[in-house]
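Example 267.
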Amino acid sequence: MRFAAGSLPGVPRRRDVLPVRRPLRRLTQLTMLFATADERSGAPIACTTSRTAAGATMPTAIADSDVLLVVDVQNDFCPGGKLAVPHGDEVVAPINRLAGRFRHVVLTQDWHPPGHRSFASSHPGKRPFETVAVDYGQQILWPDHCVQGTTGAEFHEGLQVPNAELVLRKGFRPTIDSYSALYENDRETPTGLAGYLRERGLRRIFIAGLAFDFCVRYSAEDAHREGLDVVVIDDACRSIDVDGSMAATRQVLATLGIRCISRAAVA
Ligand code: VGL
Ligand code: ZN
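Predicted structure in complex with pyrazine-2-carboxylic acid:
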């Protein structure tokens, strides 16, 4: 099965997404082709970046009102883990370096109770990566992963982000999955992060981590919907790539005008 952009299983399509007015930039916005962050596919990621009239890529300077969101850099998403993302551990060192340059950093942690509804093992006769219909749409069934209190749910031991201000746990409600750091998969139940960012005056969010095509993607979409300026640092992400999910993610991000930039372009 292939999933159209905006209609991945586990997340219903929103009908109330309003276009957010982006500030007019003096730079020309061009859609560029970048090397993919996922070495399995070899396909390029279509990204939007900022270029000067002369054609030089403008680095994006980190400001005090920016936050780096580090998504789910946990053992179970790394090689050897229960839901290993290919090359997932390769994001650790780049994220450590990036995080030290941000004034504000938030970490997310996928944090499921045993027997979570998103686990294939909770659905007799179902196997991981099959889908089931749930209240909020189609849900991909995953191998048991990131179970609360287990080693698999811990951050990768190499992750060194001492300046992180908040660790946000998500996916702890037994019957609903939560890919996004802002809303659970019904796209209505808030995690509280949008309010936190708003109250703290953090208006631009850079996103890195695992997995590009699930938790990074939905965090980026929801942050954009909240009116935040969103930047995905694509070479500090890796993808699961289930049934075209990585291509669908590229398409959605490009359609929404969410910038994907490389680490090198973060000044
Ligand atoms: C994730 C699938 C299930 C992710 C979490 O972090 O992208 N994917 N739970
Ligand atoms: Zn999960």
